[in-house]
Amino acid sequence: MDVSLILKVAGVGLLVAVAYQVLAKSGREEQAMLVSLAGVVIVLLMLVREIGSLFDTVQTVFGL
User: Fold this and answer.
1) Cβ–Cβ < 8 Å for 62, 17
2) pTM of the entire structure?
3) Residues 55, 64: contact at Cβ < 8 Å?
């Protein structure tokens, strides 16, 4: 796993946290929840490739 992936996930988390706080303080809780949900989906999409590579490595190691 590359360090840049960790930094990207941290960056998305930081942006989502700031956007969530701004929207929640202005009384837009529904939009804040959608922003946090979108952040989770974005991070999961970023991690799908890495999880696929992990499964390929496990299959190679165990000869499956």
Assistant:
1) no
2) 0.78
3) no
